[in-house]
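Try it yourself: sequence plus 1-O-phosphono-alpha-D-mannopyranose, in.
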Amino acid sequence: MSSADFSDREHPDTVVLFDVDGTLTPARAFVSDEMLRTLRNLRKKAAIGFVGGSDISKQYEQLGETILEDFDYCFAENGLTAYRKGKELASQSFIQWIGEEEYTKLVNFCLRYIADMEIPQKRGTFIEFRRGMINVSPIGRNCTREERNNFEKFDLEHKLREKFVEALKKEFSHLALTFSIGGQISFDVFPTGWDKTYCLQHVKKDGFTKIHFFGDKTFKGGNDYEIYEHPEVTGHSVKSPEDTIRILKELFPGI
Ligand code: M1P
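Structure, out:
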C-alpha cells in the first residue's frame, strides 16, 4: 500500500491526527468555525484524521454531521471504530476480548464501588458500554454541563477517580486492562494496547512517512500519552483548540 490515494495533497506522505476534546473543540463542546476553516485548508496539504476516546456519536455532536466527508480518517474509541475515506474498517470488541464472566464481575464491582461513594450529586448512566471499552462515571454520564464542571472540580480536590482506578487495578490485576482518565467526569477501561496507538495500524497501511499528532492530555496517565510518545509519531502538546490552530499555521504556512 502507499499514500497514492492522497496524491492530490501538497504533502501526500503526511497525515495529521488530532485528539478531539481540548484539541479540536473545548471539552464536550462544538467545534468553532475557525477550526473547521483551518482543517479544510490543511486538508489541501495533507491527509487529516481525528482520534477520540469517545464513541462516534459524541464526535458527530462535536465535529458536525459530515465528519465522514470532512476527515480522511475518523477514529472513535481510540480507533476501535474506524473509518477511512468514509468507509468503515474491520474491528474488534471489548466484550469478545474480556468474556461475559469477567465483564459481569467488572460491572458489578464498579456499580458497588459507585454505590458506596460519597459525592454531592449522582445522576444516571454510570457505565457506558462501548465497542472497544467501557466508560465509568461516578456522577453518571447524563449529568448537566454545570454538574459536570462541578464534579470535575470536586474530583480534582478529592481524587475520586484516581482512587477508584487504584481499587480496580488491585481487584482486576489478573487482566491486562488499562484505565485512562481522559475527560472531566469519567474514565475509560480497555485492554492494554487499545489506547490511541491502536489507530496507527490503519494509517500505517497507507505508507505515510510523517505522522503528526496533536493532543492536550499528553502527560503520563493522560489518554494522549502513548500516541504522543510513539517513536513513529511527531507529537504536539496543546493547551486549547486555539493553540492547535497556532501550531498548525506555523507547521503548514498559508493555511
Ligand atoms: O475524549 C476524552 C474523554 O471524553 C469523555 O470524557 P468525560 O465525559 O469524562 O469528559 C468520554 O467520552 C471519555 O470516554 C473520553 O476518553
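One thing you can check immediately is this: The first strand starts at residue 14 and ends at 18.
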